[in-house]
Write a structure and sequence with these properties.
With 277 residues, the protein is an all-alpha fold. 63% of the residues lie in helices and 0% in strands. It is built from ten helices and no strands. Helix 2 packs across helix 9, helix 6 packs across helix 10 and helix 8 packs across helix 10. It starts with a helix and ends with a helix.
Length: 277
Amino acid sequence: MNMSLVMMLILVCLTSSVCKHEMAKAESNVSDGLTLELVRDSLIRQEDTIVFSLIERARFPLNSPTYDPSYASIPGACGSLVEFFVKQTEAVQATAGRYENPEEHPLFPDNLPPSLVPRHKYPKVLHPVFVNLNKIIWDMYFNKLLPLFVTPGDDGNYASTAARDLDCLQALSRRIHYGKLVAEVKFRDERKDYEPAIRAQDRNTLIHLLTFADVEEAVKKRVAKKAMTFGQEVKLGDDGDKGKYKVDPAVVSRLYGDWVIPLTKEVEVEYLLHRLN
């Protein structure tokens, strides 16, 4: 057979293989609706939720009895008022189907009642990998973040305080565990780069592939600006209190830099390490 003809056939086969691979990847992303643009849009919207939840929690002082196990003696319950409140609320939300959504992760997953509503058919976009960092998020929120943005004091509004804490915790948990979707879409788009590191169980390489310092810096600046915009005191007839905010923008930036971004990356790595199982 003519050598040029052989080379042409090989080239056609290779081109066909590459095209089929790219088409399959594109069809997969289109069929389940998962794209990098949609993931980014969701992450940006979740910033709003987190900032607003922090502002609402900052309305109340620390209210330390909310977290004191010796304060509330509730029959059949143990722990603090906030633990009781969160467990009871999550139980109600579980029966309403909240945790059927793969984007939601309960803070207390043990012994949750089943959903009592018709099951929604969520797109199966994620590989079945269990990752739940809510114990770490709980500890971070109460022991590190909370003292940074609430004032000392006690106004007696303990139930409202617990409710606002839960809003913050759920918003942070959803944002951090969204790392599974981030990892999935990055894996699909750059499989050839991620697969060798996954097979080698190489955490350092995965972290390197997932890290974009300029993007992370932009996120920190954006959430700080949102805290300034959403948290300013608005008054008619003057400029208001310039530089006075309901939540310090520097705290929100630090929240993302010290905890949200690193924990999201930890979720991404844990997910990817088991992506080929």
